[in-house]
Amino acid sequence: MKFIITTLLIALLSFCSGLFLPWWGFALVALAVSALIPQRPTVAFISGFLALFLLWGGLAWFLDAANNSILSGKVARILPLGGSSVLLILVTALVGALVGGGAALSGCYLGRLSAPAHTPAETPGSIEP
Amino acid sequence: MHLDKEVYDDEFSKTSLSVQRPFESTLLEALLKDTAYSFIDNVNTPEKETLSKVVTDAFLKSIPDLVQAGKEDRLRWSKFKDTWARHLLQLPALSRMHLPIGGGTHSINAAKQFHGPSWRMIVQLTDKTEAYGIYPGGQSGNPGSPYYDTFVDKWAAGRYNPLWVMGEGDAKDKRVKWKMTFNF
User: Fold this and answer.
1) A11, B145, B149, B178: which has the fewest C-beta neighbours closer than 10 Å?
2) Tens of pLDDT along B49-72?
3) Nearest residue on chain A to B149, judged by CA atoms?
4) Which chain B residues are within 8 Å of A71, Cβ to Cβ?
5) A-chain residues near B143 (CB < 8 A)
6) Where are the domains of chain A?
7) Which residues contact A28 (CB under 8 A, 6 or more apart)?
8) In the A/B pair of chains, how many CB contacts fall below 8 A?
9) What is residue A45's three-state secondary structure?
10) What are the domain boundaries of chain B?
11) What's the rounded Cα separation, in Å, for the pair B25 and B4?
12) The pTM is what?
C-alpha cells in the first residue's frame, strides 16, 4: 500500500513539476517524496522507476497518438531505432524512469540520514545499505 | 563519365596539383570537332589510341555499372538518377527520397540527385492575372506536421496550384481570414 501511494505521489507530483520546472525538476520531487516516505532502498528505487516509467511513457504515447506518429517515426529513424515509434516511447520512458529511480533511491538514503529513528526495522535479514 | 575518365585520367594523373577538370561540354565539343583530339591518346600506353577505341573502352567499362543497376531495379532513368528533396541537415528521415522525375544536368529540367529547380511558376499577365505555382515541400517546416511535405508528390507529378494574385477589391473577399492592423 505504501508502495502504491509513493509511486502514485511521485508520478502525480512529477507531472506537476514538469509544468513549471525543467525536465529534471521531477528528480527533486522524487527525492523529496522518497525522503519523507520511508521504504527499503530497493523498493524506493522501483517506486521512482515505475512512477516515471508510467508517467513519461504514458505522456509520450498520448502525444504520439495525437500526432499520428508522424514525428516519432522520423525521430526513430534519425536515432538507431529502425523507425519504430514504440521503441522510441520505451526509450523515453526508460530515460525518465532511470532518473526517477535514482532520485528516489537517493531520497530514501537521505531520509534515513536525517531521521534514523523513523527507519522501520522491517523483516529481519532485509538488505541494509 | 567513363569517357571523361578514359580521355583525361591518364594525363591528369601526372600532376599532384589540384587542377580543374575540363567541362563535359569541352570534351563533347573537342570530340565533335577533332577526331584526333590530343587527349584521346593514353600517354601510359605505347600505341596511339583512336577515338573509336576510347569510346568503345568507356562503353565496355560502363557495362558493369548498368548490370548492377539492373539487378537493383535502377535502370529507369528516374530511379538511376534518384532525385531527393533533401533536408538541409542531409538526414534521410527528414527528406523526401526517390522522387520519380526525369531531367538531368544537361536538360532543361535540370534536376540532378541533390540539386535542381524547385519553385515552379506559370503566370499570364492579362488584366486578371492568371498564375499557377508549386514547390517540393509543404507549408510547415516542422517534420512532425502533416503539412511538412504536402506538395512534394504534386510537384513531382508536374501539377500546379492556382495562385491568387489579389487585386484591390479582394480585401473584402470571403476567403480572407484575418486582418493585421498597424498603429504607429
Assistant:
1) B178
2) 888 888 898 899 999 999 999 999
3) A70
4) 143-144
5) 70-71, 74
6) 2-115
7) A17, A21, A103
8) 19
9) helix
10) 2-71, 78-171
11) 11
12) 0.76
